[in-house]
């Protein structure tokens, strides 16, 4: 299966995606070891892996920040990003997916598709990233490839195409049969590399049956394969491999492989599959119109990560087009300023090596840009372009942070600004009522990690308040025909704007009409030119201003529809400024006269506990205002799924450990907002 490519096609930019503890970091470590990028295998439990280099990652045994590494396989350069699996760091996954061409989605052979597996899969769907699947941990008790494949089909709604048959099961899992080539690969105990041979006699019938099922499914989905299948009654190896690649690139199906990363089994075939099925930069359409992945095209790159290191500020770039060299001046079109590239670095987690240039398809770090943020577009000064940045999730949890010593107040402010620069999902603001500095993020663990960075990296002693959630306000019953006249005369040109608006809660039809902005819909039914179009846009902008603070408690307002039904202008005194003010004040008055409700963030919680502890855990969830939506049992273990207000989950980890003698685990993922109880 191993192939080589020319310089422009022999690159694969891929991410490793999965639920926490599915084995992403271990798999990345095995990739690096087998390709010769490292000479000693590290282990997550020992804190010796290459990509989990941050002290907190090693202490906690989880990936916190996306780490970039590179290796070579079969004449191809593989640029890998090991992404976090914990829901609190999903924004890191979002930024990584924005610049990746493909991904390996890792699934636990026992659990199959888990909650965060589904979340990162949906993120990849939104970005159109082709994927192959790797069912890991087949050496564990209870692991089963067919069950895992079934969960891919039912929970992810995809068409899984298993191209391997395991040899042995659980502790006796020793290898795989490649159904494309009909060859067997085995890994003797203690061996770092595999041995290749014919399919074992006892598995030949089963392998033939599975290959027949694979070819039938592929023929149903691929026109060229169907033509050959109708002619020959089967598919040749080249046709099958080509069809699998086409289906992967189009997203119509997902190739599924299996193995055990910890036991070093199944890694070489997975590397071959990465090269064979995932796209090269040249396989994808130009990033924008005339910017193909060509070193001769105008330089275009997206900054997806910013990191402060002891040696300086690193800006991680995905180069989409053109070439960049040391000493070049580039344009940051987001900040509208020029930046000089002092150094170009190839990144291997926390280690770097110098490079003279980077070309289309490369992922590198650069030193020099002082203002570029994650999401910034860097391009040739004579060919400006603005790329769509990654979208950061809105924070849902906040804590007040202050320095214990007054002398450290300025240092704390600078350190918080640096944290927010490195992680755009962290937001720092000053509470207007208390004057406290408030740090907001995506979860309790997210904020714990951020505060610990302040203590470890900056040497700051800080006091942290109790976490608070981000509430929202929404309209239950609105108003119609609310008229507002904005008149201001203080010498010179005055201001005049008259608007009439209706305010109502959003309905399903509104969300279908504006899927990109489901929290606020603005319409105008004004006829006869009574309000010119430019003033209509100003009214909408004013309404958006008013949504920042609701009348119940100053929380943002969401889920509303505003309709501008009438208005009037003045021949001299009407302006966009006047109509923006009118829109803002009109909506504020409409909100005050409407019936509102307070919303709180809720999370879907999946709790895995021994059968003996189910009653106690259910009682605790009920006390936390949780609503159980699903319950299953397997092998003496119960899996409970519940929707719980986020505010009630603070400290839940320690409570669950206490109720289950340390045997219970849980995961969460945001599931929107619900009326506060």
Considering the protein shown, what is the CATH homologous superfamily of the largest domain?
Answer: P-loop containing nucleotide triphosphate hydrolases
Give the N-terminus to C-terminus distance in angstroms: 58 Å
Number of E strands: 35
pLDDT averaged residue by residue: 88
Structurally, how many domains make up the residues? 5
Structural class: alpha+beta
Rounded to an integer in angstroms, the radius of gyration calculated over CA atoms is 28 Å
CATH topology-level fold name of the largest domain: Rossmann fold
Principal-axes geometry comes out as globular
In which order are the strands of the major sheet placed? Answer: 16-15-21-12-13-20-17-18
Which stretches are poorly predicted, pLDDT < 50 over at least 5 residues? Answer: 1-5
CATH A-level architecture of the largest domain? 3-Layer(aba) Sandwich
Measured by DSSP, the beta-strand proportion falls in 25-35%
Q: Mind summarizing the main beta sheet?
A: 8 strands, antiparallel
Helical fraction equals 25-40%
Name of the CATH class of the largest domain: Alpha Beta
Keywords: Cytoplasm, Elongation factor, GTP-binding, Nucleotide-binding, Protein biosynthesis
Binding site for GTP: 18-25, 82-86, 136-139
GO molecular function: GTP binding; GTPase activity; translation elongation factor activity
Subcellular location: Cytoplasm
